[in-house]
Write a structure and sequence with these properties.
Elements (H helix, E strand, L loop, with lengths): L7 H12 L3 H6 L1 H26 L34 E6 L10 E6 L4 E7 L4 H13 L1 H8 L2 H6 L1 E3 L17 H4 L4 E7 L1 H4 L4 H11 L1 H10 L5
Antiparallel strand pairs: 1-2, 2-3, 3-5, 4-5
Protein backbone atom coordinates (compact mmCIF):
# COMPACT_ATOMS: atom_id res chain seq x y z
CA UNK A 1 0.00 0.00 0.00
CA UNK A 2 1.28 3.45 -0.93
CA UNK A 3 2.31 5.72 1.92
CA UNK A 4 2.35 9.47 2.24
CA UNK A 5 5.83 10.97 2.15
CA UNK A 6 4.81 14.49 3.15
CA UNK A 7 2.51 15.73 5.89
CA UNK A 8 0.93 19.04 6.88
CA UNK A 9 3.83 19.38 9.33
CA UNK A 10 6.16 20.12 6.41
CA UNK A 11 4.08 23.09 5.34
CA UNK A 12 3.55 24.23 8.92
CA UNK A 13 7.30 24.41 9.46
CA UNK A 14 7.79 26.39 6.25
CA UNK A 15 5.05 28.85 7.26
CA UNK A 16 6.72 29.33 10.64
CA UNK A 17 10.10 29.81 9.01
CA UNK A 18 8.68 32.46 6.71
CA UNK A 19 7.36 34.36 9.74
CA UNK A 20 10.68 34.11 11.55
CA UNK A 21 13.42 33.68 8.98
CA UNK A 22 16.40 33.87 11.30
CA UNK A 23 19.35 31.73 12.25
CA UNK A 24 18.19 31.68 15.85
CA UNK A 25 14.77 30.27 14.94
CA UNK A 26 16.19 27.71 12.54
CA UNK A 27 18.79 26.39 15.00
CA UNK A 28 16.18 26.15 17.73
CA UNK A 29 13.93 24.18 15.34
CA UNK A 30 16.57 22.23 13.42
CA UNK A 31 15.31 18.87 14.65
CA UNK A 32 11.83 19.80 13.48
CA UNK A 33 13.19 20.77 10.05
CA UNK A 34 15.03 17.48 9.73
CA UNK A 35 12.05 15.41 10.88
CA UNK A 36 9.28 17.19 8.96
CA UNK A 37 11.02 18.55 5.86
CA UNK A 38 14.47 17.17 5.11
CA UNK A 39 13.99 13.48 5.87
CA UNK A 40 10.58 13.13 4.14
CA UNK A 41 11.97 14.81 1.02
CA UNK A 42 15.03 12.53 1.00
CA UNK A 43 12.75 9.49 1.29
CA UNK A 44 10.65 10.82 -1.59
CA UNK A 45 13.76 11.27 -3.73
CA UNK A 46 14.86 7.72 -2.94
CA UNK A 47 11.40 6.37 -3.77
CA UNK A 48 11.30 8.25 -7.07
CA UNK A 49 14.63 6.76 -8.18
CA UNK A 50 13.31 3.55 -9.81
CA UNK A 51 10.51 5.45 -11.56
CA UNK A 52 12.98 8.02 -12.88
CA UNK A 53 15.32 5.31 -14.22
CA UNK A 54 12.36 3.86 -16.11
CA UNK A 55 11.84 7.26 -17.77
CA UNK A 56 15.53 7.71 -18.62
CA UNK A 57 18.53 5.81 -17.24
CA UNK A 58 20.60 8.97 -17.60
CA UNK A 59 18.70 11.05 -15.01
CA UNK A 60 19.48 10.68 -11.34
CA UNK A 61 17.50 10.78 -8.10
CA UNK A 62 20.22 11.24 -5.48
CA UNK A 63 18.94 11.00 -1.86
CA UNK A 64 22.07 12.37 -0.21
CA UNK A 65 21.41 15.19 2.25
CA UNK A 66 24.31 17.21 0.82
CA UNK A 67 25.20 17.29 -2.86
CA UNK A 68 22.19 15.27 -3.99
CA UNK A 69 18.87 16.08 -5.63
CA UNK A 70 17.51 18.11 -2.70
CA UNK A 71 18.22 21.82 -2.72
CA UNK A 72 19.88 23.12 0.41
CA UNK A 73 17.71 25.24 2.70
CA UNK A 74 20.31 27.99 3.02
CA UNK A 75 19.96 30.93 0.65
CA UNK A 76 22.90 32.43 -1.22
CA UNK A 77 22.60 36.05 -0.08
CA UNK A 78 25.91 37.32 -1.48
CA UNK A 79 24.34 39.19 -4.39
CA UNK A 80 20.84 39.70 -3.03
CA UNK A 81 19.31 42.63 -1.21
CA UNK A 82 17.18 40.12 0.67
CA UNK A 83 19.45 38.81 3.42
CA UNK A 84 16.97 36.29 4.85
CA UNK A 85 19.16 33.26 5.47
CA UNK A 86 16.75 30.44 4.58
CA UNK A 87 14.48 29.40 1.75
CA UNK A 88 10.85 29.12 2.74
CA UNK A 89 10.17 26.26 0.36
CA UNK A 90 11.58 22.77 -0.08
CA UNK A 91 12.63 21.56 -3.50
CA UNK A 92 14.40 18.86 -5.45
CA UNK A 93 15.85 18.74 -8.94
CA UNK A 94 16.55 15.52 -10.76
CA UNK A 95 19.48 16.18 -13.07
CA UNK A 96 21.14 14.41 -15.95
CA UNK A 97 24.15 12.36 -14.92
CA UNK A 98 26.25 14.82 -16.96
CA UNK A 99 24.42 17.80 -15.51
CA UNK A 100 27.43 19.05 -13.57
CA UNK A 101 29.43 19.31 -16.80
CA UNK A 102 26.77 20.55 -19.23
CA UNK A 103 23.69 22.71 -18.66
CA UNK A 104 20.99 20.07 -19.07
CA UNK A 105 17.25 20.00 -18.54
CA UNK A 106 15.89 18.60 -15.30
CA UNK A 107 12.80 17.41 -13.46
CA UNK A 108 11.81 19.65 -10.55
CA UNK A 109 9.56 19.45 -7.48
CA UNK A 110 8.59 22.53 -5.46
CA UNK A 111 6.91 22.35 -2.04
CA UNK A 112 5.73 25.63 -0.53
CA UNK A 113 2.62 26.53 1.46
CA UNK A 114 -0.04 27.22 -1.13
CA UNK A 115 2.34 26.63 -4.03
CA UNK A 116 3.16 23.04 -4.94
CA UNK A 117 4.20 22.28 -8.51
CA UNK A 118 6.28 20.10 -10.78
CA UNK A 119 8.51 21.53 -13.46
CA UNK A 120 10.50 20.17 -16.38
CA UNK A 121 12.98 21.70 -18.76
CA UNK A 122 15.66 24.37 -18.72
CA UNK A 123 15.43 27.57 -16.68
CA UNK A 124 17.73 30.42 -17.71
CA UNK A 125 20.10 28.29 -19.80
CA UNK A 126 23.42 29.97 -20.64
CA UNK A 127 24.00 31.30 -24.14
CA UNK A 128 25.63 28.16 -25.53
CA UNK A 129 22.89 25.81 -24.32
CA UNK A 130 20.18 28.25 -25.42
CA UNK A 131 21.68 28.37 -28.90
CA UNK A 132 21.78 24.57 -29.13
CA UNK A 133 18.08 24.29 -28.24
CA UNK A 134 17.09 27.05 -30.65
CA UNK A 135 19.14 25.45 -33.41
CA UNK A 136 17.46 22.10 -32.77
CA UNK A 137 14.00 23.71 -32.97
CA UNK A 138 14.91 25.61 -36.14
CA UNK A 139 16.32 22.49 -37.79
CA UNK A 140 13.69 20.00 -36.59
CA UNK A 141 10.50 22.03 -36.15
CA UNK A 142 8.28 19.00 -36.70
CA UNK A 143 9.91 17.11 -33.82
CA UNK A 144 9.56 20.09 -31.44
CA UNK A 145 5.95 20.66 -32.47
CA UNK A 146 5.21 16.99 -31.82
CA UNK A 147 6.94 17.13 -28.42
CA UNK A 148 5.05 20.14 -27.06
CA UNK A 149 1.84 19.00 -28.76
CA UNK A 150 1.92 15.53 -27.22
CA UNK A 151 -1.48 14.75 -25.76
CA UNK A 152 -0.25 13.67 -22.33
CA UNK A 153 2.13 16.62 -22.10
CA UNK A 154 -0.52 19.17 -23.02
CA UNK A 155 -2.99 17.64 -20.57
CA UNK A 156 -0.65 18.24 -17.63
CA UNK A 157 1.71 21.11 -18.44
CA UNK A 158 1.68 24.78 -19.37
CA UNK A 159 4.77 26.35 -20.91
CA UNK A 160 6.32 29.06 -18.74
CA UNK A 161 9.27 31.44 -18.62
CA UNK A 162 10.38 34.62 -20.35
CA UNK A 163 10.09 35.32 -24.06
CA UNK A 164 11.99 37.82 -26.20
CA UNK A 165 10.02 40.65 -27.76
CA UNK A 166 12.00 40.39 -30.99
CA UNK A 167 13.36 37.39 -32.89
CA UNK A 168 16.77 36.29 -31.60
CA UNK A 169 19.74 37.34 -33.68
CA UNK A 170 20.78 34.80 -36.30
CA UNK A 171 17.34 33.22 -36.78
CA UNK A 172 14.91 33.78 -39.63
CA UNK A 173 12.14 36.15 -38.44
CA UNK A 174 9.83 34.31 -40.84
CA UNK A 175 10.52 30.89 -39.38
CA UNK A 176 7.19 29.15 -38.72
CA UNK A 177 8.22 28.54 -35.09
CA UNK A 178 9.69 31.98 -34.47
CA UNK A 179 7.55 32.38 -31.33
CA UNK A 180 9.14 29.23 -29.93
CA UNK A 181 12.60 30.48 -30.88
CA UNK A 182 11.94 33.66 -28.88
CA UNK A 183 11.85 31.67 -25.65
CA UNK A 184 14.56 32.43 -23.09
CA UNK A 185 13.41 29.53 -20.92
CA UNK A 186 12.25 26.12 -22.06
CA UNK A 187 10.19 25.23 -19.01
CA UNK A 188 6.80 23.65 -18.43
CA UNK A 189 4.93 23.59 -15.11
CA UNK A 190 2.02 21.72 -13.59
CA UNK A 191 0.41 22.57 -10.21
CA UNK A 192 -0.65 20.25 -7.41
CA UNK A 193 -2.96 20.90 -4.49
CA UNK A 194 -1.17 20.97 -1.15
CA UNK A 195 -3.52 18.29 0.18
CA UNK A 196 -2.54 16.05 -2.75
CA UNK A 197 1.14 16.44 -1.85
CA UNK A 198 0.28 15.05 1.60
CA UNK A 199 -1.62 12.09 0.19
CA UNK A 200 -0.40 8.49 -0.17
CA UNK A 201 -0.54 8.60 -3.97
CA UNK A 202 1.60 11.69 -4.49
CA UNK A 203 4.79 9.86 -5.48
CA UNK A 204 2.96 8.04 -8.26
CA UNK A 205 1.18 11.25 -9.33
CA UNK A 206 4.51 13.04 -9.56
CA UNK A 207 6.06 10.13 -11.45
CA UNK A 208 3.15 10.08 -13.91
CA UNK A 209 3.58 13.80 -14.43
CA UNK A 210 7.30 13.30 -15.08
CA UNK A 211 6.56 10.51 -17.57
CA UNK A 212 4.14 12.77 -19.43
CA UNK A 213 7.06 15.11 -20.18
CA UNK A 214 9.10 12.41 -21.94
CA UNK A 215 8.97 13.83 -25.51
CA UNK A 216 9.72 17.36 -24.27
CA UNK A 217 12.60 16.28 -22.07
CA UNK A 218 14.03 13.93 -24.69
CA UNK A 219 14.11 16.74 -27.25
CA UNK A 220 15.90 19.13 -24.89
CA UNK A 221 18.33 16.47 -23.68
CA UNK A 222 19.37 15.50 -27.18
CA UNK A 223 19.49 19.15 -28.27
CA UNK A 224 22.32 19.86 -25.82
CA UNK A 225 24.22 16.77 -26.95
CA UNK A 226 23.39 14.39 -24.12
CA UNK A 227 22.08 10.82 -24.13
CA UNK A 228 18.46 10.22 -23.34
Amino acid sequence: MARAHFSPALFAFLRDLKRNNSREFFLANKARYERDVRDPLLRFIEGFGPQLRAISPHYVADPRAVGGSMFRVNRDTRFSRDKAPYKTHAAAQFRHVKGRDVHAPGFYLHLEPGNVFAGVGMWRPPADALRLVRDAIAERPDVWTKAIGDRRFRARYDMSGEVLKRPPRGYDPEHPLIEELKRKDFVALTPFAQRDACGPGFLESYAATARAATPFMEFLTRAVGLRW
